[in-house]
Design brief:
homohexamer, five-stranded mixed beta sheet, elongated, disordered C terminus
Chain lengths: 137, 137, 137, 137, 137, 137
């Protein structure tokens, strides 16, 4: 049977700054460069599910996938990721850590075993993509 | 030897509506939502071939891939997918079923074993991708 | 005082076909080419208001403009423009006629004298823009 | 003589929140909606100069226009517009107020009478454009 | 009567380099920077016609405008603008000079008085636009 | 442990023409079509690294990846790929050969074993991607 992937893309606008509480301001600046300052992005969030195409012609109802992704969007849109999102407290909000956290949140909101990939796009120059959420950062 | 993938992207504009003849209007509405009504898209069709790079510096002449894809575009561009395309009659024209049907059509128009992936992009929010055509829907 | 323009862009997916009831199929084909067949687009709708910037830092609350544009979007999204939209019945749904009709609908939903421009984008190749709605087509 | 316009587009990423110090939190929320919360954007800044085309085939050296725009970009990129940019202190950082402020800053950095338009694009849905800077907000 | 503008956008890929035969290599480098070296772009060409909307719902048949623009595209696509295009010989192929030359070529291919604007987009950062062709450069 | 991919995208503008010195002009024309003539593109270069996310929340410092990619960009931006880039002399500058050459150059500039994919995008219609550089062309 042919397998199929459905990818849905949603957008949100959020602020963040990159700094580890374990480091001095100087070390943070060396590590994260201009991203230590408060700034923000129009992010895109991509989530991909895989499976076989059913009799209804769908691998998964796109509305189901969208609903699962909205559990993320509702928490992060028009927010400061560094301070306003409980699920992200304690994590440096790099694109990598966002992708891992969003993967886990979307996975929990979907039927088991269907999510295969999550990507976070920060700007037209940077894309972060993970195929498995692993442990919490 | 390094393998290479060439992906070509072409665009077409078509109408469609999602409804299964096996279901009542009410069931179709519950299943397909607003897509049960006639509407349309500027679709993008992506096809990917893979291989090694030849002495001519190409994995496949892009004009050959384009010609194969045009066998699809010529059938669907400026058409109603639900009623005007013989190859799609009987299928619910979800992005998934389009991707499967287009995969088979492009595969037949190319040298055997070269096509590896076909994607159908409905809008900037939805992408459907398959790596193998499987049986007819 | 400096004047300012706010342009909001919303998207919708719709089907249409171009054919005048006053013409024969042959004449319609000569006039509208492949657009005489049922097809569709991911349209973008742009509306622009102009004015001076108030003490709140806004030329108009963007939510007010969005609400006015939604009166259009709600009528046309996931519809067949040729047959399903009462406000368009009798008009050939060219980009020009859509822009004129949408201008009038948005104008009625806004405070008088604020709307200055409406554009309809059919594809990445075609843009239709009007600065005043004039009489009904 | 034909007149020509050169438009240059540069991008920056910044945080902001919309709230007037003169208003209560409740009033700010009613006026600015979710934008009262800290969030951010990948902004685009467009500046347009007009004139006749010289013997060098240019209306203005694009490097001169870019340099003038960089006086803005250097102040706002990877910053929080609400708190970190002296030139914006006291202004609610709506797209409109940003466009007015950036107009004045670019105008000062260019030969007199050349700048004709500045636009700030917040997201793919919102564009703010001014043709004359007027007085300070 | 409402006026309407139709803008059509076509794309072409071409090489060019900026250097005036009247200048020394050093002067050309100072004036044109890295553009003195051979390089190229995926250009976009935009042409706008204006008028009233006719009984056919069109301000101008889009196929007529496209045909006029193809007289340019056919000359410049997959060419070196500096050496291969007779109509451009002797001109420094800045975006400005291209816009002026293309305006004249498209104007000649259209019914008189209909063309109102031509834009040449070199990259996502640079746009050149003219509203009247004026004399030859 | 979850693996992560970081993809960085940079752009450059370059000229090229496709022709093999081993072939006659007629054979080159038959093989490469209009690409035998000098032309050019706004290219995008994508490079992807893979790994586990470290304590700093990053799979690799994006500035390190950007620096490695700049070793390519500095050689090819605003250049004629056919004649001006020593590393490409003797290769037909197809998208495939560019992707292979750029893969090797970026790989040499990065810590071993981190680069997993390089893509060259010539236009919105053509993408060339390789996962391993293989031998020199």
């Amino acid at each position: 049977m042919a397998t199929m992937e459905l990818t849905k893309i949603l957008r949100f606008s959020a602020a963040h700054r990159l700094a580890s509480p374990a480091l001095s301001p100087k070390e943070n600046l060396r590590l994260y460069g201009p991203c230590v300052r408060g700034h923000g992005h129009n992010y895109a969030l991509e989530a991909t599910v895989r499976g076989v195409v059913g009799a209804d012609g769908m691998v998964m109802d796109a509305a189901v996938l969208e609903r699962a992704m909205r559990t993320v969007i509702d928490l992060v849109d028009h927010r400061d990721l560094t301070s306003d999102v409980p699920a992200l407290i304690g994590a440096v909000t790099t694109g990598e850590n966002l992708a891992l956290a969003f993967y886990r949140m979307i996975e929990r909101a979907l039927p088991p075993g269907r999510l295969v990939r999550v990507a976070v796009i920060e700007t037209e120059n940077n894309r972060f993509e993970t195929e498995a959420a692993g442990e919490a950062p």
